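Hi R.,

Here's the input for the glutamic acid complex you asked about:
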Amino acid sequence: MVDELLRTAHDRYEGHDEGAVADYIPALARANPEWFGLSLVGVTGTVHEVGDAEVAFTIQSISKAFVFALACAAVGHERVHERVGVNNTGLAFNSVVAVELNGGSPMNPMVNAGAIATTALLPGADAAERWAHLQDGLSRFAGRSLEIDDEVYLSESETNHRNRAIAQLLQSYNRLDGDPAETVDVYTRQCSLSVTAHDLAVMGATLADGGVNPLTGEQVVSAEVCRDTLSVLASCGLYERSGEWLFEIGLPAKSGVSGGMVAISPGKGAVGAFSPLLDGAGNSVRAQRACAYLSRALGLNLFASARWSASQNGAA
Ligand code: GLU
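And here is the predicted structure with glutamic acid in place:
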């Protein structure tokens, strides 16, 4: 049944061609707008896929979810809350104004300012150690060794003036320890890790499974860290469209500007989706529609409410 639902979602939306491929990072503009892959991984380790589920792309903003989890694991709930914040800013992913409006607090760990501040919290004596911790942690979530796409990394490194400005602004508000340029470099590397829709589904399913990767059996983070991460994904995962997403779909999710998306059903599993055409906020159009369809078809909305007595079948 799940294979059939994935196939239906793919058939339904593959012809939808609204949106645009991100081109503010020059290497991303080379993505094929036709690509469309879906993968669903259950907490029991079941895997279902359709379309371009094995096409590689850079993880971009979706890394923020998993780096947030690593930071929570390393420095704890309170420190992340106080240093980064956990609220949606309602502004674009690369907004500088959002930092100014909030007295220097990045507020939202799922957009660039908050993610840069989060990356700076990772343990390590220097940037190289922080990077090693990050790459190792995200690889454990995926259950395989994740590597950098050098072309995208170099392309973003040459053009990320805005992220460097954001990091310096955060430093001016004492929100960033260490060297801002080095932290932005680690952040740019994390965004350049190469993944597939399948990897995203495994990573999401690990968050759904109390922190245990359902394919490798490894405990990557604690169940408490998963809870904290999923709550932030619910309020902040789709940029300034997060409220609409939660209202319509009712699942924690995260998207990124290369067209990836992961939607998580706690205790059940996750969908990884990939298609490069984006809406105005930076969310993949086909990925959102496919996840929405699957969430509805599988009854995954976390806020679905049903009368208690209706579920008892008159058994009282
Ligand atoms: N590396 C991208 C940037 O910093 C990530 C943006 C995103 O996916 O939201 O601009």
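One thing worth noting: Strands lie at 37-42, 47-51, 57-58, 194-195, 253-255, 260-265, 269-274.

Cheers,
M.
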